[in-house]
Amino acid sequence: MGQPTHARKPREAQDWWRDAVIYQVYVRSFADGDGDGTGDLAGVRARLPYLAELGVDALWFTPWYVSPMKDGGYDVADYRAIDPAFGTLAEAEKLIAEAHGLGIRTIVDIVPNHVSDQHPWFRAALKGGPERDLFHFRTGRGALPPNDWRSQFGGPAWTRLPDGTWYLHLFAPEQPDLDWAHPAVRREHEDILRFWFDRGVAGVRIDSAALLAKDPRLPDFTEGRDPHPYVDRDELHDIYRSWRAIADEYGGIFVGEVWLPDTERFARYLRPDELHTAFNFSFMTCPWDAARLRTAIDETLAEHAPVGAPATWVLCNHDVTRTVTRYGRADTGFDFATKAFGTPTDLALGTRRARAAALLSLALPGAVYVYQGEELGLPEADIPLDRVQDPMHARSGGTDPGRDGCRVPLPWAADAPHAGFGSRAEPWLPQPVDWAAYAADRQAADPTSMLALYRRAIALRPVLAGGPLTWLPAPDGVLAFTRAPGVTCVVNLADTPADLPAHTELLVASDSLDTDGRLPKDTAVWLRA
């Protein structure tokens, strides 16, 4: 892997985020610096040269705060401290500075909808203190909850306490929802933003960004009724306008996790005085189908254009089935509702498609997010039932495999214990027996590897020059477009090889051309005219 030949300096332009390549770090599974089986900040710091050589512009860290880990760190007990399993606040500050020295910015994760049930506020609320007003406590309807809302993880969104009252949690019972109508909740989160901007972070990713505000009446849910009682309520925009003012003081940026089918309402979050970007889930969940991918791309660009915001392109993340596995299945789309154990997968086919998808996503206008291990072509892992930790599995009654399969610790060194993730203890989630075959050190020495493909494509990305996307005529099943004069991306999803347009240089290819110089099925190229 080696040291980069030189440290890149962060782009000083205020709009660096518009076309950045941002790498998602799930700290618990990235690299184990102290050998205890859990990834940590020491492990990340040791691997910064690898990330610099990969060529990414920024790192997005999933929550690294103090947490009981009932939902992988998205149950936060203290936003101003690093969980001891990961390190210390001083070490986080060193990591932010060291990454910046290598030309890499840092984005932290904020979870404003809820906190951990171990958070001081909620513990005080359980004792009957005034902190109860910071949450949604209600009396029930006899033996029934206050309303019929369902948890995102399955089951009711309410838990009853011994005193007979109920509290709201749109996720797990260990994640009580905050009441964003209370000014103390707003003040606290504004202070948290300043705390991390003061420590040099470049941006903040906002978890479940459309869920914070609730109808104060807490009515039953009625399908199709507008406004929704807890999704995409108008009150949210005032919250994010106040946050934007803080970010602008520091030159920071926001990226929101906003799952909304209504493209016009989605775009409202990206107005110039609100969030800078939001994740594009229509592309991520789209099947491997040329027409549907083109539609997803066109609709994404169209919904961002009126507000002047850049699109984001994501193939998978810490919640979603890994790309190699998903693209190797009969149903290549993604839907939480259809996840199931034992789904047949052709990994060779999935890998071929994932390589092509990498070149497609990196060629599109906007920012690209790469989830750790995607650059290694990692598949979804099968987790033994007695090792599954994700609450989605338990709350589904055991039918949902959960999300642990995409969170397995990374393989770094093929011949080291636990594939180089950590030297002593077994990783917190078991690695598959063949994980060494995906190890970063082995791939770094192989010019045909997935890692080599990502490195080359990211290094070449500046040739696209930030230009707009212009579609070119192409046969059915083939996507072809330009981003800059003389540079073309072609992706063949048809059943037969495709002729390439005239060109002087093949810049990068996801796989070899056929013997006649044509583009085989499930292959992508970047060409210079």
Largest sheet: 8 strands, parallel
Distance between the termini: 33 Å
Q: Tell me the quaternary state.
A: single chain
Strand content: 5-15%
Determine the structural class based on helices, strands and strand pairing: alpha/beta
Radius of gyration: 23 Å
Which percent bin holds the helix content? 25-40%
Overall strand count: 18
- How many H/I helices? 15
Mean pLDDT: 94
Walk me through this protein's architecture.
This protein is an alpha/beta fold and 529 residues long. It contains 15 helices and 18 strands. The protein has helices at 27-30, 41-46, 48-54, 89-101, 120-126, 183-198, 235-250, 263-268, 281-284, 290-304, 323-326, 347-363, 391-395, 440-444, 450-460, and strands at 21-25, 58-61, 65-66, 78-82, 105-110, 137-138, 158-160, 166-168, 203-206, 253-256, 277-278, 312-314, 367-371, 470-471, 478-484, 487-492, 505-509, 523-528. A hairpin with a 5-residue loop joins strand 7 and strand 8. Helix 6 runs parallel beside helix 7 and helix 12 (347-363) packs parallel to helix 15. Mean pLDDT is 94; it is low at 1-11. Belongs to the glycosyl hydrolase 13 family.
Task: Give the topology, please.
Blueprint: E1 21-25, H1 27-30, H2 41-46, H3 48-54, E2 58-61, E3 65-66, E4 78-82, H4 89-101, E5 105-110, H5 120-126, E6 137-138, E7 158-160, E8 166-168, H6 183-198, E9 203-206, H7 235-250, E10 253-256, H8 263-268, E11 277-278, H9 281-284, H10 290-304, E12 312-314, H11 323-326, H12 347-363, E13 367-371, H13 391-395, H14 440-444, H15 450-460, E14 470-471, E15 478-484, E16 487-492, E17 505-509, E18 523-528
Parallel strand pairs: 1-2, 1-13, 2-5, 5-9, 9-10, 10-11, 12-13
Antiparallel strand pairs: 3-4, 6-8, 7-8, 14-15, 15-16, 16-18, 17-18
Helix pairs in contact: 6-7, 12-15
Domain Glycosyl hydrolase family 13 catalytic: 24-407
Keywords: Hydrolase
Protein name: Glycoside hydrolase family 13 protein
